[in-house]
UniProtKB/TrEMBL annotation:
This is HEAT repeat-containing protein. Pfam families: HEAT_2. InterPro entries: ARM-like (IPR011989), ARM-type_fold (IPR016024), HEAT_type_2 (IPR021133). It comes from Thermoflavifilum thermophilum. Gene3D superfamilies: Leucine-rich Repeat Variant. The chain crosses the membrane at residues 34-56. Signal peptide: none annotated.
Length: 393
């Protein structure tokens, strides 16, 4: 214990030691060992807690100071954009490329020498670019380039941090600036799922000629929520060059990609893809077959009706239900007798219910009335259930 006090005496300044510690040294040495150990633990814990509170206080004060600093800078940047862009006298009468932008004023007023200043200005400009259209958005884009803020966004793409790469993609995508195709394709195959999704979305928005080229390099799962995200991007990107998605039904080995392309074929009503979809009826994966059957039904592919009925017997329940649903969409009337037989014969409730729906979709009132009067009680209740407009399931 004497050695411990010698070490502390060398570390702690002498005035503090002489006044606060030395008077208690003899008392401390007279205590039993376990008491001395407990006192040491208490002192260490107290010092650690005080240091932690000090660190938290410093961190919080620093955060508040940064927020205050950025808020003041943001207000100043917004005022300059409103004055020199929104209220520019030439913005309504001149083409966007001829509007004189006082970028020197922005540099003088805002400084833009520090990285955080540039980032706050980028955030402000992205907000206004996203919420305004036409000439105003184009002028903001020009100002973004003239202030060389695009250099910072491009630099983020080379960062080792995936969230910084996503920031760069968001900024360049919002400002509609081109990114080297090699860089984009590399990011679309990233192991990080979030970065991969954002890169795919940016590729669709930014690529002018082949916005779906990354489909050729897609490996691994394309989960349902990823498909939903890409679907939203594809359907809400104006002026997008939509290809025939049947090409990936032929060549892609990725099952999830095939399922996604089937959804896109239906959404964009690509009737020329019907032959390629029909080839998937022989696919070994039942999920793909069921999705192809649903697609044929929603495209109302009358030519596929005979093949669907021929395949019916050998299919699992999932595909049988899809075939009945497809017949209800096509509504040619040639297989009403088949639907009636399945409705009366099948012991599977899902099959029976889908057959009833298909019969209702055909709109044959005489057949529906006959079934309501002569069908067995259980079948009749199923048909009444499907006829009820308040029940959607």
């Amino acid at each position: 214990m004497r050695d411990l006090f010698d070490v502390l005496q060398q570390i702690i300044p002498y005035p503090f030691w002489a006044r606060y510690i030395a008077p208690y040294q003899s008392w401390f040495e007279a205590q039993p060992p376990f008491i001395r150990f407990a006192l040491i633990v208490i002192v260490i814990a107290t010092v650690a807690i005080l240091c932690m509170y000090a660190l938290l206080s410093i961190t919080r004060l620093r955060y508040q100071w940064k927020q205050h600093r950025e808020n003041k800078f943001r207000q100043k940047a917004e005022a300059l954009i409103i004055e020199h862009v929104m209220l520019h006298p030439d913005i309504d009468i001149s083409p966007p490329e001829q509007v004189a932008l006082p970028d020197a004023v922005f540099r003088e007023e805002l400084g833009l020498r520090r990285r955080w200043q540039k980032q706050v200005l980028i955030d402000v400009m992205m907000y206004y670019h996203k919420n305004f259209a036409g000439k105003t958005a184009q002028v903001i884009r020009r100002l973004y380039i003239q202030l060389r803020l695009d250099k910072l966004s491009y630099r983020k793409l080379r960062s080792w941090r995936w969230n910084k790469k996503i920031e760069g993609l968001h900024e360049l995508s919002e400002m509609q600036l081109q990114v080297p195709e090699v860089t984009m394709l590399e990011l679309t195959t990233s192991r990080n799922r979030v970065l991969r999704m954002e890169a795919q979305a940016a590729y669709i928005r930014l690529s002018k000629n082949e916005p779906f080229k990354f489909f050729d390099h897609l490996h691994g799962r394309l989960l349902p929520w990823e498909q939903l995200f890409l679907f939203e991007v594809i359907t809400h990107t104006p002026g997008l060059n939509i290809p025939s998605f049947s090409r990936w039904l032929h060549y892609a080995e990725n099952t999830d990609l095939k399922l996604f392309c089937l959804k896109l074929i239906v959404h964009f009503n690509q009737f020329n893809a019907i032959p390629a979809v029909m080839k998937l009826l022989e696919h070994p994966n039942a999920q793909v077959r069921a999705a192809a059957i649903d697609a044929l039904g929603q495209l109302e592919a009358v030519d596929a009706e005979d093949q669907l009925v021929q395949l019916y017997v050998d299919q699992p329940v999932e595909c049988q239900v899809a075939i009945l649903r497809a017949l209800g969409h096509i509504r040619s009337g040639r297989y009403l007798h088949f639907l009636k037989e399945e409705f009366l014969r099948s012991q599977d409730y899902a099959v029976r219910k889908e057959a009833a729906r298909a019969i209702i979709d055909h709109g044959d009132e005489n057949l529906i009335e006959s079934l309501l009067q002569h069908a067995p009680e259980e079948r009749r209740r199923t048909l009444e259930h499907c006829l009820d407009p308040l029940i959607k399931s």
